[in-house]
Design goal:
The structure holds 2 protein chains of 2 kinds. Chain A is mainly beta. Chain A has strands at residues 4-7, 10-13, 19-25, 33-38, 45-49, 53-54, 62-67, 70-75, 85-90, 98-99, 103-107. Chain B has no helices and 11 strands. Classes of the chains: A mainly beta, B mainly beta.
Chain lengths: 108, 120
């Protein structure tokens, strides 16, 4: 089974900061990685699919990069609405899927 | 617009079963997979399985095989998830979500979530 390891598990940041979250896969998953934002009491929201493609309607301050085993979600100029938990997900091993452990971004 | 609307919160006793519905609209129900994902308190997202509404075919994460059943009713564009032999650690918010048949695009629309509480 492919494992996804996110780091850090949590971080504190201020509005305007650049935030970087990493997701490492236990084996090559090409670019089959997706990123989600989860806020308390809300359904997850797809931000980035296929490593670097911005989902429609998602602000351009969210950027995804990487391929193979190492992936990054960057939030440029963190906004108040961005305090949330972020998850990566792999779809390389379809029909099975895996989520990373999550990264909680809270206010410094 | 695309919508996935789930049934309401449930409280069940250990050993019981629960069935959650996911009513879809705004797209061709048989043209996309429906996945089920849960989030237990203090835990992360956990993918449970999917159903192909066109064929009825299903696939599950190993830990849910045999205890979770996914079905659909194409006449009302609704998917269902049933969990049997509930345990306290099944307490979670359960989500349905949609993906294309090409899994390269992630899960683009989600239901609002259904809280299932398992308690004696």
């Amino acid at each position: 089974d492919i494992q996804l390891t996110q780091s850090p598990s949590s971080l504190s940041a201020s509005v305007g900061d650049r935030v970087t979250i990493t997701c490492r896969a236990s084996q090559n998953i090409n670019r089959y990685i997706h990123w989600y934002q989860v806020k308390r009491g809300q359904a997850p929201k797809l931000l980035i699919y296929a490593a670097s493609s911005l989902q429609s309607g998602v602000p351009s301050r969210f950027r995804g990069s990487g391929s193979g085993t190492d992936f990054t979600l960057t939030i440029n100029s963190l906004q108040p609405d961005d305090f949330a938990t972020y998850y990566c997900q792999q779809s390389y091993t379809t029909p099975l899927f895996t989520f990373g452990g999550g990264t909680k971004v809270d206010m410094k | 617009q695309v919508r996935l609307v789930q049934s309401g919160a449930e409280v069940k006793k250990p050993g019981a079963s629960v069935k959650v519905s996911c009513r879809t609209s705004g797209y061709t129900f048989t043209g996309n997979y429906v996945h089920w994902v849960r989030e237990a308190p203090g835990q992360g997202l956990e993918w449970m399985g999917w159903i192909n509404p066109k064929s009825g075919g299903t696939n599950f994460a190993q830990k849910f095989q045999g205890r979770v059943t996914l079905t659909r009713d194409t006449s009302i564009n609704t998917a269902y998830m049933e969990v049997k032999r509930l345990r306290s650690d099944d307490t979670a918010v359960y989500y349905c979500a949609r993906s294309y048949f090409d899994f390269a695009f992630g899960f683009d629309y989600w239901g609002q979530g259904t809280l299932v509480t398992v308690s004696s």
